[in-house]
Amino acid sequence: DIEIPESHPRYQSLLTRHRIEAGVEKGITSQQGLIAQGRGEAFDYLLGEETIPSADDAARVAAAHLLLADHPVISVNGNVAALCPEEIVELADAVDADIEVNLFNRTEARMQAIVDHLREHGADEVKGLTADGRIPNIDHKRAKIDADGIGSADVVVVPLEDGDRAEALGAMGKTEIVVDLNPMSRSARAATVPIVDNIMRAVPNITAHANALKDASREELEAIVAEFDAEDALEAAERAIRSSDDT
Ligand code: ATP
Ligand code: MG
């Protein structure tokens, strides 16, 4: 591991870069993933590298959806696996969700490497290798899902999902929780619940909200879900970005 002094003003950002680099070396993150990371970093910089109130609110709504779900599934790609594998396993445990590896640039080697990596970080079962289901209206290479995973999920968490697939998953009738730092991204716009935040902050935050809501009644959870307005959340994130010069 490299040494980054915690006192460095860009500590979190440097740590994130290092994890993505290590992910590429380990064969779990694609070269494309480096570019996605760069785009995310730019938005995080503009957001002040902190969880804005509207993103915290969305994370609580996401937790309520996950607790209400019959079959929640958390989708993991190469960036997510590199950045927060333990936090994904903790979220899955907190809301009793399945974990499924789901890659935009799918190769069997990378699928297997990510499954192994998640197991090393405490996951029991990891789905995605069966690939006996399809997302309708997506070209076949990018459409592969597990029929008993994302295929039969009612609520899906798709951090950093590609816009096309996010729209197609929404069209399948799934409740979609998207984590994406770009509020203008098609993925964020396709979401039932867009969380405009870094996955390294958002995933543990959803878990914390889920733990806090563990004893809430269905009525309380449904009220939290009903009050949420995705459009308002996206607008609040855009405002935070535009006013970043005075934060
Ligand atoms: P569209 O959704 O409009 O089709 P895209 O999917 O083509 O856009 P990509 O560059 O492929 O855009 O996707 C990467 C997305 O992931 C970007 O929107 C970026 O902000 C976001 N992102 C990257 N790293 C992180 C991170 N650590 N946490 C949250 N979001 C991130
Ligand atoms: Mg996108």
UniProtKB/TrEMBL annotation:
Species whose genome carries this gene: Haloferax marinisediminis
Keyword Ligase: yes
GO MF annotation terms: acid-amino acid ligase activity; ATP binding
Enzyme class label: ligase
Subunit structure: Homodimer.
Pfam families referenced in this protein's UniProt entry, alphabetically: PPS_PS
Keyword Secreted: no
GO biological process: coenzyme A biosynthetic process
Name by which UniProt lists this protein: 4-phosphopantoate--beta-alanine ligase
Function: Catalyzes the condensation of (R)-4-phosphopantoate and beta-alanine to 4'-phosphopantothenate in the CoA biosynthesis pathway.
